[in-house]
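Researcher: Please translate sequence to structure tokens.
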Amino acid sequence: QVQLVESGGGLVQAGGSLRLSCAASRSISMFNGMGWYRQAPGQQRELVATIRSGSITNYAASAQGRFTIYTDNADDTLYLQMNNLKTEDTAVYYCNTERILDGTFVQDYWGRGTQVTVSS
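Model: Translation complete:
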């Protein structure tokens, strides 16, 4: 089993920044892809950003231009740098891993989440 542990969430004012971390129990270079998702109260879980094939990134429209997803293979950690935070970003943020199956990316493992709260 792969263990993923998120950290770095907290309470910030609108316009501020946070960096989320996702520490993995094995070398992240062995994953075909990794991603960040979030779920706000009363809402469905939604994709925030993914990084695949080592360097290909994809962002939700709401995150594009403000968030950056990247990995550090030296410490087996996935990061999400969040700048210019808005109250709409308030949610529990989850990291996950992906593998390629039949030519497409499928989700494998999930962390337990970290709370991000943005105040006005």
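Researcher: Any highlights?
Model: The longest strand covers residues 91-101.
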